[in-house]
TrEMBL record:
Cited Gene3D superfamilies: Aspartate Aminotransferase, domain 1, Type I PLP-dependent aspartate aminotransferase-like (Major domain)
Record gene name: rfbE
Protein's recorded name: GDP-perosamine synthase RfbE/PerA
Transmembrane segments: none
Protein source organism: Sphingomonas humi
Signal sequence, renumbered to the chain: none
Length: 365
């Protein structure tokens, strides 16, 4: 049997037609109708007042930090358990990342740790929504009480709603990634959303080299080229046309995993009842007595591809601090991501569960 991969994008809608149309139109850079239509589609899904497409999810975070005026001398509070892009964006903005621990219940930034990490230099909080879960509302309350900006790295949770409202509305700016393995993809791509008119205008301007929005070649502030191409937007528009179908399938896959693994000792993130998750990558912790890397090795041997969850940023050489952030360190050691792509069949999910359970039995320390 062929190996079951962790992710394959589902490109079975209008993706090819729209890309061909974009190429034939000659509009292959960042002007063109698909960029406008994709941004409108992002607004329709998220309900945000403004959506601005950019070239990837990493620059989306940098653009957002830059536009809430994060710069040299500033501190930005970030969970140590995240994808490295969240942290690198802070460095690129010239600021210093301040790492805090996460909660065992949802693997996300711990509001109590955020409160403790605030100093007079704290310019922003950069909470990150990972896998199935979304940042605790308490984090936004703390930011508000201290008058600190929030840039929410929502790269993994496009399509997730909280009480019927799309994720990202509690932040000053929320960012998304449309990388090939994300829920909606444009190949490489990203977006920022905001409900603040002035901030959104600045985001749009800075993504285009700081060019005035109504005067060509007039640049009145420092900017970057973070524009998305019309070709990428063409793929993205076709993806969003199918987003309900993609989300429904991913939710069904996650529910089947949770049901099949209920008695396996695997520990999932806890997600509050009002959150309807996009279920990006189904991830869970192996039991404490199991050797995660050995479980992954045995699963690979039996035709199932998996991923470890992220390593802690405060352990990376360029960010190494002497901190001990025990919850994040434990999650990082025990976490595993399972195949979760939209075209995965129920039979394949069942096979993954069978292989995982067998590996758990033999990979006891
Ligand atoms: C995917 C991802 C990003 C970055 O996205 P790219 O589009 O690959 O640059 C940032 N943060 C998190 C948490 C991600 O999962």
């Amino acid at each position: 049997m062929p190996t079951i991969p962790v992710y394959v994008p589902s490109l079975t809608g209008n993706e090819v037609d729209y890309v061909m149309d974009a190429v034939r139109s000659g509009w292959i850079s960042s002007l063109g109708q698909y960029v406008d239509r994709f941004e409108q589609a992002i607004k329709d899904v998220t309900g945000a007042r403004h959506a601005i497409a950019v070239s990837n999810g990493s620059v989306a975070i940098h653009l957002a930090l830059h536009c809430v005026d994060v710069g040299p001398g500033d501190e930005v509070i970030v969970p140590t358990f995240t994808y490295i892009a969240s942290v690198n964006a802070i460095t690129l903005a010239g600021a210093r990342p301040v790492f805090v621990d996460v909660r065992m219940e949802d693997w996300l930034i711990d509001p109590a740790a955020v409160e403790d990490a605030i100093t007079p230099r704290t310019k922003a909080i950069l909470p990150v929504d990972l896998y199935s879960a979304v940042v605790s509302p308490a984090v936004f309350d703390i930011a508000k009480a201290h008058g600190i900006a929030v840039v929410e790295d929502s790269a993994e949770v496009f399509g997730t709603t909280i009480g019927g409202t799309h994720v990202g509305h509690a932040a000053d700016v929320a960012t998304f990634s449309f990388f090939g393995n994300k829920t909606v993809t444009t190949g490489e791509g990203g977006a920022v959303i905001s409900n603040d008119d002035a901030l959104a205008a600045r985001l749009r301007k800075v993504k285009g080299q700081g060019q005035s929005l109504d005067k060509r070649y007039w640049h009145d502030e420092v900017g970057f080229n973070y524009r998305m191409t019309n070709i990428c937007a063409a793929i993205g528009l076709a993806q969003i046309e199918r987003v309900d179908q993609i989300l429904a399938r991913k939710q069904a896959i996650a529910a089947l995993y949770r049901q099949e693994l209920a008695d396996s000792g695997m520990q999932f993130q806890q997600v509050p009842g009002d959150v309807k998750s996009s279920e990006w990558l189904v991830s869970a912790l192996v039991p404490p007595e199991a050797d995660r890397d050995e479980v992954m090795r045995q699963m690979a041997e039996n035709g199932v591809d998996t991923r470890p969850v992220f390593y802690c940023a405060h352990h990376m050489p360029m960010y190494a601090t002497r901190q001990t952030l025990p919850v994040a360190e434990e999650i990082s050691r025990r976490g595993i991501s399972l195949p979760s792509f939209p075209d995965l069949t129920d039979d394949q999910v069942l096979r993954v569960c069978e292989v995982l359970k067998a590996a758990l039995l033999s990979a006891r320390r």
